[in-house]
Amino acid sequence: MSDSPAKHKITLWEFFQSLGKTFMLPVALLSFCGIMLGIGSSLSSHNVISLLPFLGNPVLQLVFTWMSKVGSFAFSYLPVMFAIAIPLGMARDNKGVAAFSGFVGFAVMNLAVNFWLHAKGVLPTNDNVVLKANNIQNIIGIQSIDTGILGAVLVGIMVFYLHQRFHTVRLPDALAFFGGTRFVPIITTLVMGLLGLVIPLIWPWFAAAISGLGQLINEAGELGPMIFGTGERLLLPFGLQHILVAIIRFTDAGGTLDVCGRSVSGALTIFQAQLSCPTTTGFSESATRFLSQGKMPAFLGGLPGAALAMYHCARPENRHKIKGLLISGVVACMVGGTTEPIEFLFLFVAPVLYVVHALLTGLGFTVMAILGVTIGNTDGNVIDFVVFGILHGLSTQWYYVPLVAAIWFTAYYLIFRFAIIRFDIKTPGRDSDNSSTGNPLTSGKSGYNTPAILAALGGMDNITSLDNCLTRLRLQVKDMCRVDDAVLKANRVIGVVHLDQHSLQVVIGPQVQSVKDEMVSLMSSASAGSNTAP
Predict the structure, then answer these.
(1) pLDDT at res. 473
(2) DSSP per-residue letters across 246-281
């Protein structure tokens, strides 16, 4: 066991976890921009104006048009956002340099591809047939082969490794000005320039593989959405669900469609392209079947039903202690689309029950697809239901959502209540000694006792790496034996996932960013104090 964090070698498991976490930065912006685009496009549509004539006011229409334009940003520049976000999120030091190099690498790669296309005589041309045959699009102002999100991810990963290898490089005195962090964008320019010459030769193979995956999913028919929905839930405890989600949302695996004269790939990309296209009426069922609508039965009905079952199955004297925990989890699920505060209440004590939940979530995807519901976006919460369902009229068939959610609520409640009582599952409030569901003293803006959490992790000297994703802390520790799971749970931690002898995840919930920031502040203060001590 090494005491030096510098000697820790990242495993393949940790790499994919870290990669998946970086996807959340552009996806979070994409979700917000999608809401703006959805509100702007729906309130400026002829159907809504006919129903509510006052919305036709020119000033209001200018506001809605502005919202649509701003909301379309994330869709228009999504690949370059991934190319920047991946090295930014994965780099441990000099993150700004890593992000800058990500943009440089993405631009240079496309410029090199453009050079190759000119050298081969494919460009210049305005012939749409030639452009389409070679998959040439305008990428950040450069005519290049559209490698989509997959190309951006490739750039991001390569830039991350170049940054890790060269951000501390020392050059001879005559070239010292170009050393250190300045060398990262320089070496990135050279490597990505060479990669751009190779892309036209190898990309058809990548495109064929992704298209084959998409064809396999499509051939599964109505089971395709169920496989996706179930798979995403099963990967969630390991923090790997973002990889599967990104493949379906942003590559050919999620479908390909011509929208406003442009070929668009990926379920979410297709949906947002249709949102921003003024000539599109309705949304593609083949795309929305992988999006928000599939989550709604479980998120708006099922998990609240599970929470109610856990409340009713708790000891009467403990119900008041867990009420706040369950209510906050239901609100996070239904309003924010964040399910882990509820899921982690039963995941570790009843894994089989979690598998049942995953299957029912997948079934919800299939049922919504069979019913012909067409509600897109990413979160599956009440906001998506209103903005992308109700506001877009009856054509989205949003009226099926409350009906199916009610069925899922009943099913979850009955299944969970039966399983908890029949197998005596120790969900919150079931133990006679229920100190872990109390409300310990809190500290800081996060509402958590961060010093106690830090101490339960073995103290600052036990932590070699600290980061977070949407709901959980991701840590590397020197000695796992110093981590006290019981104390962590007594301080409102939802769950602790031990991945190996040095890697663990601490599930906090929606306030994880605040908890992480407070931990960093505590560690920095302690470090500064020790450095100034005589």
Answers:
(1) 86
(2) HHHHHSGGG-EEEETTEEEESHHHHHHHHHH-TT--
